[in-house]
Amino acid sequence: MTEAQFIPQPYTKSVEQGKVTWESPSNIALVKYWGKKEHQIPENPSISFTLNNCKTITTLTYTKKDNSNEFDFEVYLDGEKKDDFKPKIETFFNRVEQYLSFLKDYKFVVETQNTFPHSSGIASSASGMSALALCLMSIEKQLNSEKFSDEYFNQKASFLARLGSGSACRSIEGDLIVWGKNNIVEGSSDLFGVKYPYGVHENFKEYQDTILLVDKGEKQVSSTVGHNLMYGHPYAQNRFAQAHENLEKLKAILESGDLDKFIEIIESEALTLHAMMMTSMPYFILMKPNTLEIINKIWAFREATGLHIGFTLDAGANVHVLYPKQESEQIMEFIKSELVGYCQNEQYICDQIGFGANQIE
Ligand code: 2P0
């Protein structure tokens, strides 16, 4: 697959107006994407669990307009006009225009809402950009008399979402998605996410993710700044190589169901991501004291009980506590009694592995 395959043929149908709604989930990387080349091409492969409950729901209303000189759109979050979202969408439209030739023919209204608290420190770019990409694909589908296969629809939606925000390309489908060309997963691509094609042990079915909201503030380091820190970073090349190695190890673990080894990889990936930020120039510490308190408590509880509780982190202070469904009763009890006190306003979100986006009729 190359980019050229996503450039549409001239549209055969004309549509005056319409409305389409998609809900799309967030995802949490197990092997992290950190560092990119031009055009949203990742420096290394990543693999993620698609989430189930943390979602963005986006309705796109489109009305044909007289001229096709420029983009014309408005954005609403929870019913309120959000002009500060416009530059990101404008950038996205510019990047995808050659793949969606109708973009300047319509006036769009984007109405969006998240199922998770707005400033929770949970990235809404993955769910938000994937939901918008899917809405645009639904319009493109209507403009073609020829039917798209589901595979093409999802692949192009992921391709477009990636141009909005890299990690968004992993939110179209579930339950495990790989993005970034590598020799370990057949069919992997830098251009879009693909469903993990190999056997996955029962242990990972319905895997749980309880997200502890340690710091709900604005992101201290934007993803653009963050990825740029990997340019000229003294450890970058080793880190990129390590991501391939960890993906290979994870493949064997996903098949065997070895939860101890699983935890070893995901925790190492999380701490490596943060180590990259601590050792870049400029340098950042994105963990908070309570992030470390939680990590130490998790380690002590795991040591004492032998339960398979582990964590991962995004580029922020919140902790994703990951554990198998069959141990959830005891682990949830521990989370509520020992960890929730470290969260801002005791807030946390219970989520689990999910299966991707859905169109809402
Ligand atoms: C990931 N993160 O794999 C990594 C781990 C955060 C930490 O992808 O610039 O918002 O939009 O392509 O996808 C966050 O970066 O970056 C991210 P852009 P994105 O999930």
From TrEMBL:
Q: Which residues form the Diphosphomevalonate decarboxylase-like N-terminal domain?
A: 25-183
Q: Does the keyword Calcium apply?
A: no
Domain of life from the UniProt record: Bacteria
Alphabetical list of InterPro entries matching this protein: GHMP_kinase_C_sf (IPR036554), Mev_decarb (IPR005935), MVD-like_N (IPR053859), Mvd1_C (IPR041431), Ribosomal_Su5_D2-typ_SF (IPR020568), Ribsml_uS5_D2-typ_fold_subgr (IPR014721)
Domain Mvd1 C-terminal, residue spans: 211-342
Q: Does the keyword Nucleotide-binding apply?
A: yes
| Gene3D superfamilies per UniProt | 3.30.230.10, GHMP kinase, C-terminal domain
Which of UniProt's keywords are assigned here? ATP-binding, Lipid biosynthesis, Lipid metabolism, Lyase, Nucleotide-binding
Q: What is this protein called?
A: Diphosphomevalonate decarboxylase
Source species: Aestuariibaculum sediminum
